[in-house]
């Protein structure tokens, strides 16, 4: 299956996959909502970002380059701006993922503490033989284990997709970018 996916892409002489991006104008690569900002401060077009992320995800660990094709001539200054914009935008996305990961670790720690507290309280209440205390003790034990499960699930299950995204953004930031005017 992977071979079929990779066959959709052209390759360089060095056998790197070429992710091709065609556009009429340099300005089309940027978001229209912040047109008054300089190109260095503007966000890249969401369509461009989605396309690049999807393509790099699709090719997995294969070596690749990103190649922009323009219908009109692109100035050297704009090439420099686009490279910087590309790098800074994907660095920004990488930083957002790191923040999400830190937040997950913090939440896991909090859930773990809550679970330990409930389980400890449950064990302390279990000594009392009254029915009400036994019911409360069992409820606290269940709540404690649910809280502990959430902490473990966050670390073991939810961490992996964020880690994959982080690696993906790093690959994009470190990718080789080329430019060509259509003939």
Residue share in β-strands: 5-15%
- Shape estimate: elongated
Rg result: 25 Å
Low-confidence stretches: none
| SS-derived structural category | alpha/beta
| Main beta-sheet strand count, sense and barrel state | 4 strands, mixed
The average pLDDT value, as a whole number, equals 85
Q: Share of helix among residues? A: 55-70%
Q: Give, in spatial order, the strands making up the sheet with the most strands.
A: 1-2-3-4
N-to-C series of helices and strands:
HEEHEHHE
Secondary structure tally, helices: 4
Characterization of the model:
The chain is an alpha/beta fold. 62% of the residues lie in helices and 12% in strands. The protein contains four helices and four strands, in the order αββαβααβ. It has a four-stranded mixed β-sheet, covered by helices on one side. The radius of gyration is 25 Å and the shape is elongated.
């Amino acid at each position: 299956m992977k071979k079929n996916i990779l066959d959709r892409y052209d390759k360089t002489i060095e056998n790197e996959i070429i992710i091709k991006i065609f556009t009429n104008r340099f300005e089309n690569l940027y978001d229209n909502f912040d047109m008054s900002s300089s190109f260095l401060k503007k966000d890249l077009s969401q369509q461009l970002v989605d396309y690049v992320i999807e393509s790099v995800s699709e090719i997995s660990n294969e070596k690749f380059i990103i190649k922009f094709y323009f219908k009109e001539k692109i100035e050297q200054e704009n090439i420099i701006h686009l490279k910087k914009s590309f790098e800074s935008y994907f660095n920004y996305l990488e930083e957002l993922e790191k923040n999400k990961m830190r937040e997950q670790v913090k939440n896991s720690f909090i859930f773990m503490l809550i679970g330990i507290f409930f389980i400890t309280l449950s064990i302390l209440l279990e000594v009392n033989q009254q029915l009400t205390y036994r019911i409360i003790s069992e409820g606290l034990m269940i709540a404690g284990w649910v809280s502990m499960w959430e902490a473990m699930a966050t670390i073991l299950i939810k961490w992996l997709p964020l880690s994959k995204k982080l690696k993906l953004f790093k690959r994009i930031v470190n990718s080789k970018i080329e430019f060509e005017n259509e003939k």
